[in-house]
Amino acid sequence: MQPSGPTHTRARPHDAATASAPLAPVTDLAWDADRARALGAEVVALWAELLERLPAMPVAGRASVADVRAAVVRAVPEEPLAPEELVAALRTIALEHATYTGHPGFMAYITGAGTVPGAAADLIAAVLNQNVGAWRLAPAATEIELHLGRWFASRLGLPSTAGGYVTSGGAMAAFIGLKAARDARAGWRIRELGTRGGPPLTLYASSQAHDVNTRAADMLGLGREAVRVVPCDGELRMRVDALRACVARDVRNGYQPVAVVATAGTVSTGAIDPLDAIADVCAEHRLWMHVDGAYGGAAALTDALRPRFRGIERADSVAFDPHKWLYTPHSGGVIVVRDMQTLADAFSMEPSYVYEDKELTGRGVDLYGLGPQFSRGFQALKIWMSLLAHGWSAYERRIAHDVALARRLHDRVVASPVLEPVGPPPTLSIACFRYVPRELRDRRGEAQAEDYLNRLNARLMTELQLGGRVFPSNAVIDGRFALRACIVNFRTEAADIDALVDQAVATGEALHRTERASLGTA
């Protein structure tokens, strides 16, 4: 009878000769300095060529999705490409199938041009390949990042307890700021108990606030309906009287308000909420004041424009994006808080697999304990090197120049018989306008005419983008489709503003000649 249950085979001892045989090195991925130098020379040559050719290139290509895919996508090879094939692939990506956000005619969205020192710094950061989550793994990187956070905080007028660090972008910075707000103002052990530990929490943002704040509320478990939308005034700024009424109503109905998101530079028009008055409301109700300065925060750092942001120094947290108006390469946001301890309170954890003898290694700050990410790249280096290479006065001058260019655009639009501003005049470096044919100027406001103008200007934006000289985006303000130019590009100058106006007029007139039949009048 065979025994029941599993049988066990005795492990055979390793052959002594096999065990002692040398293990051959595998060096396929380990490029030596000469090979790196050769590729680096080709890459730098391509970089310089792109910079030389950029002003004369179209801002964006006209290739279809299928054409782009066919040009740049290929099967992953089993064997390496030859060096010349590798460089050819890079050239195709860089010179044929990109949208050039550094082009002087690129005025869409809010995308900086990307500094040359920042790009070089990104290469070194990648070569170092450090995890800036732990001080011990990235000592210089951590100290530079923390220094930048303190410097930004001081420029904003925050106290000595303030500081911050670099994030992947404005969305992550908003999440971090609102996570700190939730945990600091909930009034119970929300990190342990979650939102079930007390009444429903509410946040407040204007009708012009960016969607990242609603996304943050969703990610924090508050739900999107927790974000109360506060109406704006005629300048598209949050109405403080409406904020007060909204907070009072929620308190009466058993909700617990925790934070107000004040916008310092809205995405559509660059409007700045009345920060000082909002800070008063926050102080009265013990609310956390988070400032979304993803766009305008860089301007608040400057001496000339800081008065427009009066009250930002009273914020509990400020988010802004150096990859927008500090012109650094993507991506890099910043979160600054009034008291760094609030970040530790919101995020600190001590996992068992992270051990360090602080008596031996010192007392450096581990950034993984101040935010959601354990793995963090050296994103601060491109910001730091850009500041060192240019000096702060260059940023002061260029940001002021961008504002002046937006004002020039607005003035040219006002002077045109077929263009009109949409929304308030520029507060920062965004100007919105639309093309209105002469025969429709007296019909503005009529439903049929407005529908036609919206369709006409949407088509106009697309044609301008496809034309290759200028690249605006759009905003919809009070139901009106507008062309929107945001100047956060250090290569943009007056000639580019004039080209946008001239092409908008010429292209608008050509489109109207072919589209006017749809209006019902010849």
Automatic annotation (TrEMBL):
Asked whether the UniProt record includes Lyase among its keywords, one would answer yes
Which superkingdom heads the taxonomic lineage of this protein's source? Bacteria
Cofactors needed by this protein, per the record, are: pyridoxal 5'-phosphate
Gene3D superfamilies per record: Aspartate Aminotransferase, domain 1 (3.90.1150.10), dopa decarboxylase, N-terminal domain (1.20.1340.10), Type I PLP-dependent aspartate aminotransferase-like (Major domain) (3.40.640.10)
Alphabetically ordered keywords of this record? Decarboxylase, Lyase, Plasmid, Pyridoxal phosphate
A Gene Ontology molecular function term for this protein is: pyridoxal phosphate binding
Family, according to the entry, reads as follows:
Belongs to the group II decarboxylase family.
Q: Identify this protein by name.
A: Pyridoxal-dependent decarboxylase
The protein's organism comes out as: Gemmatirosa kalamazoonensis
